[in-house]
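Internal tracking record. Fields below are filled automatically when a chain is submitted to the structure queue. Please do not edit lines marked as system-generated. If the sequence contains nonstandard residues, flag them in the REMARKS field before resubmitting.
Queue: standard
Priority: normal
Entity type: single polypeptide chain
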Amino acid sequence: MTHSIEFHPSSRLLVPSAARSRRASSWDRTGGNRDRILVESGETAVLLDARAAGCINHMYVVMGFNELTDYRDAILRCHWDDEESPSVEVPLGDFFGLAHGRARTFTSRFAAVNPGDGCAHAMNAYFPMPFSTRALVTLENRGPQALGGAIPGVWYHIDWDEYDQPLPADTLRFHAQWRQERPTTVVGDQPNVQIHDGVNLDGTENYVALDASGRGHMVGLVLEVDNRHGGWFGEGDDMVFIDGDRWPPSIHGTGTEEVFGGAASPNVEYSGLYAGYHLIENRDYSGVTAMYRWYAEDPIRFTESIRWTIEHGHANNWAADYCSVAYWYQGEPHAAFPALPGRDEMLPPLRPPYEEARAALMPLAHRAVALVRSGEDPGYFDRLAEVARDFYRGDFTGFLAALDRSGLAR
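SYSTEM-GENERATED OUTPUT FOLLOWS
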């Protein structure tokens, strides 16, 4: 007879497992405290190469006093079981929900960005990522200098279970894919108008976040929008075409904010366990926004194919830069991913006075590091890191004002 303990919410923690806990990390193999890896321009670092059956349970990555562009220049890739085409290919920051190169702290079911001293933000992911014979996780640097800016280096942990027995044959594999459309193409004669009488009865011009074939289920989405025109862009409905749907799609929503659990036209940031609008640059909806939705308890299931789309404005009348990360599980082989755009095409939108702010911060960051190493004024680092908080949030005007008040540049 089944015992009541088996229905305890944490029952899996109450029974022994034959799995062995493992970690790959950037710890200093000399025994020193340089617990980071150096990833120079053009290099690809191997973060994990596990040749066994297992499952990744947690990924952690952090940099300090890094360039904001590092979050897009670093490309995270995962290959399972010696596949040629990666199952994960996403810019590092965006994979963890750190959108547009702007750091926002949040905690959710599958991803979290946690604060440090102002110049560092710890990125965490908790998707289970199973593999039968091998897991290869790499980080490519497409930027012009080593990842990490004034403190060249990347700190990381990858925690995983190792199994003696092979995985069941029908175990699905984790996938994540980057897409972008910069800008979206306006449909109709009423561009960038919130309420209008246009119609969309086929979804062919929608923004596409995922187009996959096989059997599996979608479990998440990070959507990022750069709205240069201002005004509410989110009248666009989500439309999910499953297993060869024509029209109408199997899933049809009622507006962008509904997808991410928000009330009408969110203009303040929020984050929750399953959904959030965690980045809103301006309350008039101009500039950059980002949002996430985890289909953890309600995965979008497909047996042949899935095409997850969303209108950009009602009936696709809005011109904006859209980009996204879609997360899903499916059996292999997976369809080939679209080729990543070039480095310059993927850079986050960093508008004035970004260059002025960067030019002010980076020499001071190098100075702060030198003062710590020499022991002359280690407190300078902490004071500058706190002032830099606005810079890493993307408030470049606020950073310049705070830097002037601090006297750290004198």
